[in-house]
Amino acid sequence: MSPTLAIVGAGAKAVAVAAKAAVLREMGVPVPEVVAIERTGVGANWEAAGGWTDGRHRLGTSPEKDIGFPYRSSLVPRRNAELDERMTRLSWQAFLIDTGQFAEWVDRGRPAPTHRKWSQYLNWVADRVGMNVVLGEVCRIGIDAGRRWAVHTHDRTVSADGLMITGPGQAERSILPGHPLVLSIAEFWHRAAQRELICADRVAVIGGGETAASMVNELFRHRVSTVTVISPQVTLFTRGEGFFENSLFSDPTGWDSLTIQERRDAMWRTDRGVFSARVQEALLSDDRIRHLRGRVAHAVPRDGRIRLTLKTTRGNENLETVHGFDLVIDGSGADVLWFLPLLGQDARDLLELGLGRELSGAALEESIGYDLAVTGVTPKLFLPNLAGLNQGPGFPNLSCLGLLADRVLGADLSGAGEPEPSLGRRSDAHQPVR
């Protein structure tokens, strides 16, 4: 029997891995059985229901960077060209052709699709390959008696020889939960999806990345006097989107020859804490936008406003300043370590033993190997969202999904124990998405 690879989340990364596994299986190549555990549905974070968007905003990445990109497979010697050709049948263009939208998309100048359209594409791929999805919210991750991963939802357990964690975490978190003048990412997009106008004089958006950028872009149509973006950076940087920057994401060859500092600099310049060029262009035409440098240390409601305490450094001095706002939107972005509270003590012990030190984000990030898994840990734990520093900046996002699938499916899961036939396999409880 094939080993089982469980994936938490059914977004683009999970669909890419499941699709390539299905195509390899059609070619007679042994691959793991892939099962995704998802609380809402395939591609949910690209829909309003996921809490990260209203579905109407545009994809920041070119849609041609689809689930097979960059179509340079290396898994099957002498048959990789065949594998890539088969994967093109699941491409963005193939989706448009199949749904009768290709000519219109070309005639319109190949625009970036809306988030909702991208979700429809992911669902189309999942349907075509019979992706195995277990609906349920993961509440605990542990190790079972067979030394395999045990992924628990509220009503079932999936055992697996390898586990991949995806997704940005929970969009509901905020610096002041439940307060009407502080909106989480999910609360903001829920109001936007309902076409509810925000009316406020002074609005603060916390965060300098693309999550915050899309919120600022949405606020242009609302009745606000000023929008202040709060981020640690000295200014609002524009993401590098030229050929040389983009090629770092599509092809990480040579990435490991860079120093750690050079890699961090490249990721900050092109991916983290930056706004897309499209959003920056819109900012230039709107004089309501401001920027404050600092990290939010405290948020206190007072006199009908929210007072934010910002910490900054000037030379060797640590400074604190207080600013008042009528509405605060916490768009500080995704948390790549969102899964840590789900780990049982047995799982935490396993990771700390493999890491050789205390479990932390830095320790995990520095441990990611070529296969995008934590080095020294069996059964395998794949963390593509933490793979940017060691393996290349394209793995945490949508920039090289086909290469990501190659790395994960090429990993050796045999050391994780024998799979049990009743778990992680397709059955009446694990039906393909339709």
TrEMBL record:
Catalytic reaction equation(s): L-lysine + NADPH + O2 = N(6)-hydroxy-L-lysine + NADP(+) + H2O
Domain of life: Bacteria
Organism lineage string: Bacteria, Bacillati, Actinomycetota, Actinomycetes, Mycobacteriales
EC number(s) given by UniProt: 1.14.13.59
UniProt GO molecular function: L-lysine 6-monooxygenase (NADPH) activity
Region forming the signal peptide: none
Entry keyword annotation includes Flavoprotein: yes
Cofactor(s) needed: FAD
Protein name per Swiss-Prot or TrEMBL: L-lysine N6-monooxygenase MbtG
InterPro entries listed in its UniProt record: FAD/NAD-bd_sf, Lys/Orn_oxygenase
